[in-house]
Structures are given as C-alpha cells and as structure tokens.
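Consider the tokenized backbone below.
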C-alpha cells in the first residue's frame, strides 16, 4: 500500500538555514491547529539513518515547500534526490509544490520547476524585500499549506461516500480511509489529553457539565459524592471494527476469523470498562429498542 501523504516537506540548502528558521514560526501553529507534521532535515536525530529519513519524508509529503536560491540549485543532493522525487509525485498529483523565492537564481531557466506558481515573484525575492513584506509572504505560505492539508467535509468521502467508494481504486481508497482515520485519531488523542483534567474542573466548579467521560475518568466522577454521573440521552453507538479485514494478506480478511473474534470478545467486561455498564449491548449498531432495529442477539 502506498504511504500516507500527510506532511509538509521543506527542501532547502543548508546555506539558507536562516531562512528556514524564519519560516518555521509561521508553520508551527498548524501543528497545533491541524495536527500537521513538519519535516525538514533538522529533525533527524544523531544515530538516525539520514538517507532513509529523508526518503521517508519525501514519500510522506503532501506539500513540498521549496526555498529557492542559487544555493538551492547548487546542491547536488537536492538536484539528484529531492527534486526528482517531488517532481515525480507532483506529476501524479500526490504532492503540491510551493516554491518560495529567497534570492536571485536560475529558477526561470528550470522549466520543470518554473511551471509551479511561486508564492512570491522571482522578480521580488525575499532578500530584496523589507521585513514586513517578508513576513506577509511567509504567512501566505502557511495559509496555503493549511488550505491544502485540511480534510474538508465537502470532499467526496463525506458528500457522496458511495460514489467515492465505487469510483476510487482500491489502494487509493484504503490509503485515504487510513489518512482520515489517522487525522481523527490525532483529534481523539488531543481530546483525551484535554479530558484528563475534566474531574478537577468539575470539582473546582470551572465546568458544570462534561460529556463523553469514559473509563477511569467516569469512575472518578462516580466515586465523588458531590458529582452526578448519568448516561447520555440520546444514546450514541459504539462498535468494534477490524481495520485489517481489508488487507487480503491479513487473517482478519477471513470472515470466519472475525466472527470467531466477535464471539470471543467479552462484551460485558468491555461495557463495564468503557461506560461503567451504562451501555446496552446489542448485536447491531442500531439499538435494539428502536422500532426499526433488526433483531440480533449480542
């Protein structure tokens, strides 16, 4: 399966390290707001296989920011490794290339690269502009990256999932689903981290009502006589999904294995651990008490 492309890759010459340091503060807020991963070679740790790390960063890039200068074009590694990989991915529409012109260079004599619209004109490189204009351009770079890396609810995945499923090649379908799940999982991790402070907020009366308390947090609230724990109305559905069932090489692709695992799961124990026994166990994701529910044994 193709790697998930969900990162910003920054290609630059080490001679332009100061420009990289100037750009990073404009991109770093995206890491918090959109859980975006920034990749540049300064993240390589001592002892890492640097060539493998760079190749992996290229393979996972969704946006490539190129800090273009004479030194950029003078770099053999950029010319022989980074640019060919990025241009090939761009031809397949896997990567969006965003050039930023730092200084005078041969950009207009490189048709393979000059075809991509730069954030600033080659006639107005950053080294010729005042600080406030440079900052404005770097913010435009960050805004462009944010627009490219968000997963809008208007995408075919959400607006017409059946058509998207029918018309999307299998590998691309699986890659996009995994990408969306990864973004959602990052959101959940952030929510869980924030939720770890919920009981103290309730005890200090900073919050009056808190939703979606699970496991140990719910148990902590239930033990406190000053607080009340109640099931959510209307209810929400929770179910187990065997993600690897779509991999033909995985044993989970065999329906018999999934059914066996389904019978082996201790649902009452899971119910007690996650929702303190408040959930109603059913054999369908539609609660059995609903009039249109298909009657299924748990």
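A designed sequence for it:
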């Amino acid at each position: 399966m193709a790697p998930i492309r969900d990162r910003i890759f920054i290609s630059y010459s080490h001679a332009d390290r100061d420009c990289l340091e100037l750009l990073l503060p404009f991109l770093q807020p995206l890491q918090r707001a959109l859980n975006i991963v920034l990749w540049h070679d300064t993240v390589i740790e001592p002892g890492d296989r640097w060539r493998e790390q760079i190749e992996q960063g290229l393979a996972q890039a969704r946006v490539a920011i190129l800090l273009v200068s004479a030194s950029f074009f003078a770099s053999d590694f950029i010319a022989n490794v980074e640019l060919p990989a990025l241009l090939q991915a761009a031809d397949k529409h896997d990567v969006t290339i965003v050039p930023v012109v730092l200084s005078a260079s041969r950009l207009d004599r490189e048709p393979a690269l000059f075809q991509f619209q730069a954030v600033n004109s080659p006639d107005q490189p950053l080294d010729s502009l005042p600080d406030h204009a440079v900052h404005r351009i770097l913010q435009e770079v960050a805004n462009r990256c944010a627009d490219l890396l968000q997963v809008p609810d208007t995408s075919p995945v959400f607006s017409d999932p059946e058509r998207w499923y029918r018309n999307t090649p299998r590998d691309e379908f699986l890659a996009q689903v995994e990408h969306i799940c990864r973004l959602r999982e990052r959101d959940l991790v952030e929510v869980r981290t924030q939720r770890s402070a919920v009981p103290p907020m309730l005890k200090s009366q900073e919050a009056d009502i808190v939703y979606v308390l699970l496991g140990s947090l719910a148990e902590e609230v239930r033990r406190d006589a000053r607080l009340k724990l109640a099931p959510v109305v209307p209810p929400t559905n929770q179910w187990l999904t065997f993600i690897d069932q779509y991999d033909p090489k995985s044993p989970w692709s065999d329906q018999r294995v999934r059914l066996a695992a389904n019978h082996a799961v201790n649902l009452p124990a899971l119910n007690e651990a996650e929702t303190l026994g408040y959930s109603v166990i059913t054999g369908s994701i539609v609660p059995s008490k609903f009039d249109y529910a298909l009657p299924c044994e748990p």
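The beta strands are 7-11, 37-39, 61-68, 96-101.
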